[in-house]
Amino acid sequence: MTEPATEFPPPKILTLSPAHKPILITQGAEGRLYKTPSPFQPDQFCALKYRPPKPYRHPILDARLTKARISSEAKVLDRCYREGVPVPAVLAKDAAAGWMMIEWIEGEPVRVGINKWLGERPEDDAVVDHSQEDETPLTDLMKRIGVAVGALHRTGVVHGDLTTSNMMLRPWADDRLPNGHGDKAEKAKAVAGDVVVIDFGLAMQSQSDEDRAVDLYVLERAFASTHPRAERLFHHILDSYREAFKKAPGVLHKLEDVRMRGRKRSMLG
Question: Which residue did the predictor score with more confidence, 224 or 14?
Answer without folding.
Answer: 224
